[in-house]
Amino acid sequence: MTTSGPGQTYGGSTVGSEPTFQSTVDDSREATVASVLSEDQTKKLVTDIAEDLSVFDGIVERAQAIIARYPQSRSALLPMLHLVQSVQGYVSQAGIQFCAAQLELAAAEVSAVATFYTMYKRKPCGEHLVSVCTNTLCAALGGDSIYAKLREHLGEPGKPLGHEETVGTPGEPGSITIEHAECLAACDLGPVVQVNYEFYDNQTPEKTVELVDALRRGEKPAPTRGAPLTDFKDVSLQLAGFFERESDVDGPSQATETLAGAQLAQDRGWTAPVMPANVAFPDLEKK
Ligand code: FES
Predict the structure, then answer these.
(1) CATH class of 128-232+245-249
(2) What is the mean pLDDT of residues 259-284?
(3) Using CA atoms, how far apart are residues 141 and 159, in angstroms rounded to an integer?
(4) How far is the CA of 258 from the centre of ligand 1 (A)?
(5) Pocket around ligand 1: residues whose beta carbon is below 6 Å from it?
């Protein structure tokens, strides 16, 4: 497989030369698409097919390594999307085309997945992604106030920063994208904030403002738990399964609060009943 710049082929699709529907990935599928699109829509799709993928030249080997992990190449789509995100800081149309070509999928199939999961960003992200949990428990404990304070602090007078908006130039040092997030699975440590998916527990509006100010200055304050802080592109690479340094996986993975129940049971000698090895499923009522 040739996997390089414009005019060359990616998994069978011609890229950057004369626009064509001869993707060879699945002619019948693309013929069906062409038959239901208007001329303008077809032109747009052809333009999309002609995206320059040379920005991904450096990750082709890694893409192939991801694909080799799975019996069927399409199963590699989620880490592949993290991989393209590690290059541009978001999943661009070219990133979608790259994944489609590598995995022999239609661009629409890749696009459907990339737009479903919130971890795939469709706009260029800041050097850091700050996620504030505003789900029920964190919200009640102060998550809503943290998010409101952050929007105001990072926005302009009278124009608070919005969900998935960035202060600074995306990708440049000190730039920050904020988002409100659903439950981050750390309710016992709420309200919680994540930076590039690393946890900062038991936050207050003041603590979070200090945190983002440090990020704006180029500092990387240590997370409460987990690996040291990196940046959004680097963590996307880790999510694709590539760890460049041993320290990428270093750090405490548990908190005292999380273990409180287990500790209490141990102190009091409580144990759960042993599960029998074979338990028959109850009969299901016939419908
Ligand atoms: S509600 Fe915030 S971590 Fe669960």
Answers:
(1) alpha beta
(2) 90
(3) 25
(4) 13
(5) 133, 135-138, 183-187, 190, 192
